[in-house]
Write a structure and sequence with these properties.
- It is a single chain.
- With 104 residues, the chain is mainly alpha-helical.
- It has one domain (2-103): Metal-sensitive repressor, helix protomer (Methane Monooxygenase Hydroxylase, Chain G, domain 1, Up-down Bundle), CATH 1.20.58.1000.
- It has helices at 21-46, 51-86, 92-103, and strands spanning 2-7, 13-18.
- α1 (21-46) runs antiparallel to α2 (51-86) and α2 (51-86) runs antiparallel to α3.
């Protein structure tokens, strides 16, 4: 995975990440699983399922999302951040610290 910078039509900098088809497929597969879990909770609510059962499923979704976020962060550190530091951009460290705080 490699991050690249580009400029949009009104000259503001945007960052985007080029991912391989395999990486996209893996991330989308995981998101589809999470989406299915959310739909399952919705059905549980509609069916008046017991609170403990619903909360267990909510915890499972929370853990799945956290794992997905950690995976994206790890790839970001190994690619984009390493590249930026090698290019002398140490400001990226502040960005990473903010990201880590948001993921907690």
């Amino acid at each position: 995975m490699e991050c690249e910078k580009c400029e949009n039509s009104n000259n503001t900098n945007k960052k985007y990440t080029k991912r391989t088809e395999e990486e996209k497929k893996n991330l989308i597969r995981r998101l589809n699983i999470i989406e299915g879990q959310v739909k399952g909770i919705k059905q549980m609510i509609e069916d008046d399922r017991y609170c403990d059962d619903v909360l267990i499923q909510i915890a499972a979704i929370y853990n799945a999302i956290k794992s997905l976020g950690n995976n994206v962060l790890e790839n970001h550190l190994r690619t984009c951040v390493v590249r930026d530091i090698k290019n002398g951009d140490t400001d990226i460290i502040n960005d990473v610290m903010c990201l880590i705080k948001k993921l907690q």
